[in-house]
């Protein structure tokens, strides 16, 4: 099943998956991205990671991941901000365990949600968004920005990357209460288009995963970073199920959107 952070999109997308005889038995409904095959991160290990949470009748709940790129801005996936009300969206900085208030977290409401003007929820093209925060993030050991690549600075096939999040640790499972991490290699666009189809993987998308499966982002990880040595190259976007053989995770390739990001950080 396709994973993203908005279940309302799942049914309409299910029939768009390619039919591949040697990849039979994988045609369930789409789902949202969590870290599968990973391990728990150390508290404060990734100080740029935030939890994007939505206020509801019973308090706040984790919706998506995101990354600090400035004292007032969070980078996330477009489908995480699509249709949301900024007054109900909070960013939790310095979070590790969603069930425990350590007293070190910063909780900041969003003042503006910025969605790429050409975002397409049917194809996940231009799946990038920003959260403009009402208050300033106070930097500390557990709250730091991540670096962005140079425009069009592409990451080579085979490069080992890390992705992080509080998503489910199994497909269709429950959210992780603690931040998880997993290491996955970059997959070439050509190889990624074999299972997904030529038209489904755009040039501004990035794929990462292992052929045998077992390591991936999953439901709830959407919007989180894919990074190498403190530089963010991808935003967790979508995929067919979670950690399935032959189907790598698909990320928004940040290098294609660096200019857009800076233009909207005003």
UniProtKB/TrEMBL annotation:
Primary residence: secreted
Pfam family, one: Trypsin
InterPro entries: Peptidase_S1_PA, Peptidase_S1_PA_chymotrypsin, Peptidase_S1A, Trypsin_dom, TRYPSIN_HIS, TRYPSIN_SER
Keyword entries, A-Z: Disulfide bond, Hydrolase, Protease, Secreted, Serine protease, Signal
Cellular localisation: Secreted
One annotated Gene Ontology cellular component of this protein: extracellular region
Region forming the signal peptide: 1-16
GO molecular function, one term: serine-type endopeptidase activity
Annotated GO biological process: protein processing
Top-level taxonomic group: Eukaryota
Protein name per its UniProtKB record: Trypsin
